[in-house]
Amino acid sequence: MSFEEAIKSEPAYRRDQIYLAWFDKNIHSFSEITTLSKNLREQLATEPWMTVKEKVLQTSQNDGTRKALLEFSDGRVVESVLMPRISKKQIPGDRPRYTICVSSQVGCPMACTFCATGKLGFARNLTYREILDQMRYWQQILWEKNEGEVDNIVFMGQGEPLLNYENVKLTLKILIKYAKIGQRKITLSTVGVPESMNKMVTEKDFPAVRFALSLHSALAETRATIIPSNRAGFLDFLVDWTKKYHAAFPSRTHFIGLEYIMLKDVNDDAKHLNALIKLALKLGSIRVNLIPYNPSSCNDAFQGTAIADIQNWQKKMNDHSITCTIRRSQGLDIDAACGQLANKNQ
Ligand code: SAH
After folding, report:
1. What's the pLDDT at 71?
2. Sequence ranges of the domains in the chain
């Protein structure tokens, strides 16, 4: 009997017991969850404890970033990434901390022109278990070697999380309540799906995780050229939506991240900079994250903006009192950085 079938008619607290067990270091199968009834344990005896199977695991020689090719029961695969966080103030004896980057879909239908995942096409949404199990997979590896804890999760792997809304929402709730990951330690990144963005701010129970928008251009024409899924009027929608977002999540620290990949001669001239500054000032509580372009062998149409020019943008942004950071690319040598997840080891 499948997991969902087996627990369908069970009281709600059974789910609590199972979700808790999924993140318990000392439990390795459904039969070991002693809080469950014997009958339910028997029904779940043949159910896999993990929905992901490791096919390939690579480690970056540069920075220790690890990338796994994971397979699901139907033979489909995704990539998932573990990044050690280099702490600014290293305290001796401190356990290292890790950020993981999870996938939410097999492939991606958005087909952003600069992204290797976009070239894969789309196969299907992941279930909430398949997303959660990426976290459980990495945590298991760290536990086995006593290496530390996953404490930060970004939904920046393969797929568009807001096209898999219900599964992603349930995953977030489970991560916060049962894996005890703080809501501020989780970042949902989207290229912009207006229906789902509206749902997020109208539903009362959407978790207050950090939100990042892959903007990539504040000029509508450019955005439409590099992001085929961009809807007409999206930037105006964004201005309205941001007001609703801040009303729904009123915490002072609940800024929106604007991600901006810097593409040479595409979105990096003075006109684009001015448009970004203007939009950022209009949106209010935001932070800009400039992303150096990560090349991939399946995409040679673009070149990255020189780092000095990216730094110049950062400075200009700071001059307007806009918080602006430059993303550090990790795992480049194993194609594990943003936009490089293309299942090449399949
Ligand atoms: N679909 C979601 C989640 C994927 S996040 C989204 O678009 O936000 C992946 C992040 O990496 C996004 O900010 C994306 O724009 C960025 N990215 C994609 N291709 C890249 C590349 N070649 N180099 C650097 N960043 C890239």
Report:
1. 98
2. 1-49, 50-334
Ligand 1 binding pocket includes 217 (Cβ within 6 Å):
no
Can 298 be counted among the known catalytic residues? no
Of 279, 305, 281, 282, the C-alpha closest to 294 is 305
Burial class from Cβ neighbours inside 10 Å (0-12, 13-18, 19+) for residue 151 reads: middle
Sign of CA dihedral 123, 136, 184, 88: negative
Note the CATH architecture for domain 50-334: Alpha-Beta Barrel (3.20)
| Overall average pLDDT of the 241-254 stretch | 89
The CB of 260 under 6 Å from ligand 1? The reply is no
- pLDDT value, residue 118: 87
pTM: 0.95
Distance separating alpha carbons of residues 15 and 187, to the nearest angstrom: 25
Residues of 128-140 as b/e, b for ≥16 C-beta within 10 angstroms? bbbbbbbbbbbbe
CA 337 – ligand 1 centroid, Å = 9
Strands (E), 135-276: 149-155, 186-190, 210-214, 256-262
Closest-CA residue, ligand 1 atom 9, reads: 156
Owner of token pair 């939410």: 104
